[in-house]
Task: inverse folding
């Protein structure tokens, strides 16, 4: 079984790569930082900055050159950005968030489908923020809702591949370290919920969440290709 995962250096992507490698899968992954322990365990890795649409695509195509089929592609890498009001968010920062969370997934998918390579299933890691539009979640909400539509559009073009945008629930990763370290602020209401969830079972660590998702991925094939689902509602 061959799998590609973006964002393998930390959090959920690291957990997914670690568990799949332990299961004996052939795992390909990218991120800017190198997860040395996973590379030592056989991860096929390339250091790629997903914000760099000039050099990124050719480096990614080199990584997967010679692979004819992927059983599963997990578009996991993502940038949260800072929690603040829209008017305080710079266009440069919003553009970079879109570049990483949306447009890189376009060129990753285009490289994956090049050279008549086939892909059985694509899961894009989305977020409840793609639906909620909570104050302060500016570029992250915008980008995750655009990601859901990107996945739906690819699903309409590629009937041989099953696509899902999946909100994975809360995960205790670097993103949550940042969110839960912010001071309480009545403008940004979800912060209270996140602070209360940290350290409890509703915010598992990356590896625990990865194990749950690995059980869920085959079940996603039962829902319509291109749909968005929240793991908490399955
Ligand atoms: N944590 C949560 O509660 C939560 C909830 C809902 C959805 N999600 C989603 O879950 C996914 C994983 O997030 P996480 O919580 O595991 O966060 P994380 O620990 O911050 O991991 C993010 C991963 O994305 C990679 N990445 C970020 N920017 C990149 C760039 N420019 N180029 C290449 N790789 C880049 C990082 O690698 P490098 O820094 O090494 O490049 C890292 O491996 C994201 O899509 C996130 O939106 C998380």
Result:
């Amino acid at each position: 079984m061959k799998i590609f995962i973006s964002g393998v250096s930390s959090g959920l992507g690291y957990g997914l790569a670690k568990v799949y490698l332990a299961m004996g899968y052939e795992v390909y992954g990218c991120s800017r930082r190198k997860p040395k322990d996973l590379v030592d365990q056989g991860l096929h890795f390339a250091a790629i900055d997903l914000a760099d649409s000039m050099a990124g695509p050719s480096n990614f195509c080199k990584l997967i050159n010679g692979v004819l089929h992927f059983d599963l592609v997990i578009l996991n890498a993502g940038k949260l950005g800072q929690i603040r009001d829209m008017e305080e968010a710079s266009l440069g920062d919003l553009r970079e968030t879109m570049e990483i969370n949306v447009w890189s997934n376009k060129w990753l998918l285009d490289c994956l489908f090049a050279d008549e390579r086939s892909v059985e299933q694509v899961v894009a890691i989305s977020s409840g923020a793609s639906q909620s539009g909570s104050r302060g979640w500016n570029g992250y909400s915008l980008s995750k809702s655009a990601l859901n539509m990107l996945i739906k559009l690819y699903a309409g073009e590629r009937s041989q591949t099953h696509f899902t945008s999946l909100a994975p629930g809360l995960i205790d990763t670097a993103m949550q370290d940042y969110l839960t370290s912010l001071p309480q602020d009545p403008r940004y209401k979800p912060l209270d919920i996140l602070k209360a969830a940290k350290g409890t079972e509703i915010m598992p660590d990356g590896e625990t969440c990865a194990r749950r998702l690995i059980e869920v991925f085959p079940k996603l094939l039962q829902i319509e290709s291109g749909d968005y689902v929240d793991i908490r509602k399955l």
